[in-house]
Fold:
Amino acid sequence: MRSPVWPVVTLVAALLGASAPASLARDESEEVRLVLQITVDGLRADLLTRNIDHLGEGGFRYLLDNGVVFTNAHYRHANTETIVGHATLATGAQPAVHGMLGNVWYDAQADALSYNVEDPEHLPLPVRAAASMGEQVDPAQRLARTKGRSPRALLAETVADKLLKSSAGRAKVFGISGKDRGAIAMAGQGGKAFWMSTDSGDFVTTSFYYDTYPPWVAAWNAKREAEDLAEGIWALLDDPASYAMAHQDDRPYETDLDGYGRVFPHRFGPSDSKLLYTQVLVSPYGDALLAGFAKALLAGESLGDDSTPDYLSVSFSGVDAVNHFFGPASLETEDMVRQLDRTLAEFFLFIDHQVGLEHTLIVLSADHGMPEAPEYASSLGVPAGRLLPEAIVTAAQRLGREAFGLDEVVKFYYRPFLYLRAGHIEAAGLDAETVREELARRLTRVPGIHAAVTRSSVGQLTNRDLAARIRNNLHRDREGDIYIVQEAYWFNFDPGPVAVMHGSPWNYDTHVPVIFAGGRVAAGVVHRPIQPADVAPTLAALLGMSAPASAQGTVLPEVFRNAQFTY
Ligand SMILES: [Zn+2]
Structure:
């Protein structure tokens, strides 16, 4: 673990600050030319600290040793899913305000479930004529009706959009990721987004952003680096004896993704496999490809080449994917974090040559944490189980009949919301609020359900923090009738290839790293509770801007302490 540098740094800075001439504070050698917002999808805070003795130089260590490290950052919304966390990081607002309540919600106008960044009017720009269609494994993306994507459902301003306004459009703004929703929210309404296609391994975008691909993107895709991985392997980075999880590589609840296997070395399928590019994303190579694409972007768009700060968001999807298929207590996740560390080190080295790390303000966080696989938790004596959607719907339909004589009162369930048939309730002459509350009360007794609440009954929860997290996750146009919270360590998702699923309001899902480094930020460790919604207002303040329009988080003063900040 780190030594307690904070008091020493404070003393030195106080002594220096007292005698430093004012001109030093305006030293242009540290002016911020690039803001790099890194999001490591699914990096629960302790997945980083647990691996700390095996991190090399220049990757995570660069941030940990030179940055302000917040050890106690928790999301304050209940549905800890990818788009919810990304949108919160980008806007500084709660989902109740930015509107991204979940990866999927019910669209009342379309009378259908809607995927968070879907936009049928903005289809992907084709990369090559012969691209075969991959099989979509991501359960949320499978619900999308088209491959059109845009940020149209994001209701709040992002810090990147704020930067565009404050620089009169001169700032260059990009969001990239292994997955669409990791890229799109961060780029906001005015930036450009690219993500990796699981059909072709190319980085793609849609007509919302461009009419044609910029030449550097076409050139990158033409190299077919993802396809080169076909029939290759993912092997451990280090000596197996150095891993805490080496003794439990093969566990029955881990997922074998079309021959990819449950043990090392994992083997990628042939180039015509429909799951090749999904397998690549469930490995360190997806993140390495993303870092390679980021380098091409930095060079191709000349980011950080002048005194107007540019913004690049890079959301690494590999840790999340590996957690989903093998669990966070797996050898795979342990190796994944080490390999991402090496990818980051190489990436930071490139940025140092291209822009200069002294000119690069970096903030790293995660969009959510991760639970253990319920079977693993059970094996350690922690009560856990699987709460399947079918069981929730069956129980709710039965309770509707028993309590009100209503047949098929549930329209559908998609986590975390249960949606009722308003027409059935009205036709039976029943009061909708009474039905909702009574059903919620009875659902709480179903095994695996910790709480089932409505907008009006959520205030009755004795756990005030839980009530606040649920309230922050409601939005009148998008919420369902009943919010269902599973018991801690219970899996609440569709049965299928995914062995582990986050999305609860419990600490293992809300706890993420938040680290600011670079520019004029001085090192320190902060243990007081903060929230990722504080990131956007703090970034804005570091850039001399007011917070994004709807931001609810606050500026983190520790980021400014000890360093030389003046106007
Ligand atoms: Zn996930």
Summary: The two ends are 36 Å apart (CA to CA). The CA atoms of residues 79 and 503 lie 5 Å apart. The first strand starts at residue 34 and ends at 40. The mean pLDDT is 92.
